[in-house]
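User: I've been going back and forth on whether these two constructs are worth ordering. Before I decide, could you fold them both?

Assistant: Sure. I'll take them in the order you sent them. The first construct and its C-alpha cells:
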Amino acid sequence: MRPLALAASALALAVALPLAASQARPTAAASARTILPGHWEYDYRIGPIPAGGESKCLKPADVEQFSRGICTRKYRCDYTTNVVSNGKIRLKGTWTDKKDRVAPVTADGAYTPESFKLNIHMKTINGLPLAGVMTAKRVSAECPAELTASK
C-alpha cells in the first residue's frame, strides 16, 4: 500500500495548482482564453484508484501560469512540447528535482474556462511508470474566506 500512497503523493504534487511561477507573463487576453480565476475543486486518480482531492483559490497570476505547463516549486520543469490552446493541452518534457534527478513526463487533455482534465504519464526518478488523471472544475468566481485567508 505504501508505493500507492507515494505514487498518489507524487501525482498530487506534480499537478497541483497554483503552478510554479515563470518569468514570462502572457497577456490578459491569453489568460482569458484558458481558465478563469476563482474557487476550483480538484480530484486526482492513479489508474482507477482515487488519490485525493482539494479546493484551491486561483488568482489571475495562477490562471496565467496554466498556459506555461504543469510544475511545482519542488521541480524544474522543461518542456520540449507545450501546447495549451483552443481547448487542448499537450505537454512533453522532464521534471528535475533538487538533486538533479530527471523524470520524463507527458500530459494531454482538454480545458474550458471552467473545467479541465489532464491525463498524465511519467516515470518517477526511480524509473517506476506512473499514470494518473486530474480533473478540475470551477465552483464559483469568488473564493471562500477560508481559502483566501490561508494565502
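The second construct, handled the same way:
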Amino acid sequence: MSRVQLSIPVALLVENVLTSGEASELIIDCLQRKDFSSLLSNIKEPVMDLAERLDTAVEVGDNWEEAIRSGVYEFKFLHINALKRLLYFRFGLKADQDYIQEDLSLRHVHLTLRETELLQVLVGRQWIVHEGKQDIQDKDKYRDASLRIPVHIRLKY
C-alpha cells in the first residue's frame, strides 16, 4: 500500500493540529465540523488559517484524515522553508537555535534514530537525511534510547 502524499499547505495543517496533543479522531472530528475552538489554544501556530487549508485539501484531493490517523505521509513537494516548519511542528526545532542552514541544507539537526527514520519517510522524495557518524553496534542503543544524534539534511537534486 502506498503512503498518503500531501501538498505543503495540507501537510503543515496536519503537523500543526497534531501539536494539539488531542486524539486523532477528535482532531479529525473538529476539522470535519470546522469547529477549531478546542484545537486553537493548544496548537503551535494558532494563527494558521485552518479552514483555508482544509479547502486546499479538498481542491487538490489530499487525504488529510488518513495522514492524521497514521501520523505518517509523504510531502509531494517540499521547499526548504516548509522543511524548517516541519522540523518545528514535528520535533520542536527552530532554525539558528537548534540547527544551522547552509544554502539548501540543514546541519547539526539533533534527532533520535527513530525521529531520523520518520523524517526520511516524510521528506525522502526530495531530501536526503544523513545520520551522524556512530558505530554500527551503537545503532541499537540509539534506536531504543532518547539519545539524539547529529543529522544533516540536504536536497537530493
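Notes on the second construct follow. Residues 93 and 151 are 13 Å apart (CA to CA). The chain has a mean pLDDT of 92.
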